[in-house]
Specification:
Shape: flat
Radius of gyration: 22 Å
CATH topology of the largest domain: Alpha-Beta Plaits
Number of domains: 2
Number of helices: 6
Number of strands: 9
Structural class: alpha+beta
Length: 195
């Protein structure tokens, strides 16, 4: 009989049992690889992409904007008062708020848009085929949707709020600069809220 290969338990002589064992080992390995790929791309707490993967996609969109043109935008979102919620109610309450906001953000974008948790209390969204003039209205719609996501935590009603900044994506401009522009825009929005 032809030799098929080696498993972790020894040499395979081609018997049905050993072929089945190899196939099972292969399935398990593919499953582990898939899980590792997911961990590299996804935020641990929410079902969203993480900052690293988001930045990789942003780089691709910058290249597309440079090469083909088109209307792409970056939105940067900061959760208002998350530290105060963590301090008063504990990190479980803050985590629940982040998960609630993540789900609401996913429901407020198209399938072609990309949503990520950038870390801590920050989220990012990439929009394609959107005009700059539509961004303020989109930011307002998302803010209002988040404000409706009240939830109960140990008998207390917690009400999330966000500050939103945005910028159009320009070809030839580094991802770090786009993120800095959207971040500055978000801090301007936060200042306006405070009065």
């Amino acid at each position: 009989m032809n030799k098929i290969g080696k498993t972790g338990t020894g040499h395979c002589d081609g018997s049905n049992e050993q072929i089945a064992a190899l196939m099972d080992e292969n399935r398990q390995l593919r499953s582990r690889i898939g899980e590792l790929e997911r961990l590299v791309r996804r935020d641990i707490l929410t079902p969203l992409y993480n900052r690293r993967h988001f930045t990789d996609i942003l780089d691709q969109w910058i290249w597309r904007a440079h090469r083909y043109g088109g209307d792409y935008a970056l939105m940067f979102i900061d959760v208002d008062q998350l530290k105060a919620i963590n301090d008063r109610y504990g990190h479980d309450a803050g985590d629940k708020m982040l998960i609630t906001i993540a789900k609401a953000l996913q429901h407020n974008v198209r399938r072609s848009d990309v949503v990520a948790r950038m870390g801590g209390d920050e989220f990012g969204i990439l929009f394609e085929n959107i005009k700059a003039s539509a961004l303020p209205e989109k930011a307002e719609k998302i803010s209002k949707s988040i404000a409706k996501q009240w939830f109960d935590y140990n008998g207390e009603t917690l009400k999330p709020a966000i500050s939103v900044g945005f910028t159009m994506i320009e070809g030839g401009v580094a991802a770090a600069e786009h993120l800095a522009r959207a971040d500055r825009s978000m801090y301007e929005a936060k200042k306006e809220k405070r009065g």
